[in-house]
Inverse folding.
DNA sequence: CGTTTGACTACGC
DNA sequence: CGCGTAGCCAAAC
């Protein structure tokens, strides 16, 4: 059997998830990758966790070239909340324009506040249907009492 | 068929 | 808190 460990079996899963990202929100490569369980059983879970985000990028690179309209590839950004495409890239400008058009704002550093625009992930039904795992929420729960004032 | 690069991320300074 | 580096694998050259 051709156990081709290429991305052909990985790509459809990425497509399915990216399609679920609502307009006006963004998801990170790592977040999407964390939802997809390791396909290769022999692969170490830790290794997979480090590799999968890059595979997501590779997959999206394929559809951004043809600009597949059914897949909102522009809503996927890196963990820093920035666009990973080369700044001078035509696709980067397109991605940024589309996000802004959807209401996503960029700060002075040209980065998106994931706390505000970060995606919570698809519904549980969707996850169960595909056998996906619930992603680690990219929204960082604000510490309840970060600036706990020292009474004395 | 060896080398290089990459839409990544975590970690260190 | 921003910038540089290491790691890891697949695809492109």
């Amino acid at each position: 059997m051709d156990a081709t460990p290429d991305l052909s079996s990985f790509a459809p899963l990425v497509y399915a998830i990216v399609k679920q990202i609502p307009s006006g929100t963004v998801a990170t490569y790592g977040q999407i990758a964390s939802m997809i369980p390791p396909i290769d059983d022999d692969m170490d879970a830790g290794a997979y966790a480090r590799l999968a985000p890059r595979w997501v990028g590779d997959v999206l690179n394929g559809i951004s070239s043809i600009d597949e309209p059914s897949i909102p590839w522009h809503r996927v950004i890196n963990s820093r909340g920035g666009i990973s495409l080369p700044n001078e890239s035509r696709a980067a400008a397109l991605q940024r324009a589309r996000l802004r058009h959807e209401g996503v704002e960029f700060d002075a550093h040209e980065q998106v506040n994931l706390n505000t625009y970060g995606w919570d992930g698809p519904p549980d039904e969707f996850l169960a249907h595909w056998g996906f795992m619930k992603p680690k929420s990219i929204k960082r729960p604000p510490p309840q009492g970060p600036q706990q004032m020292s009474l004395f």
Chain A is about 40% helix and 5% strand. The mean pLDDT of chain A is 87. The longest strand of chain A covers residues 27-28.
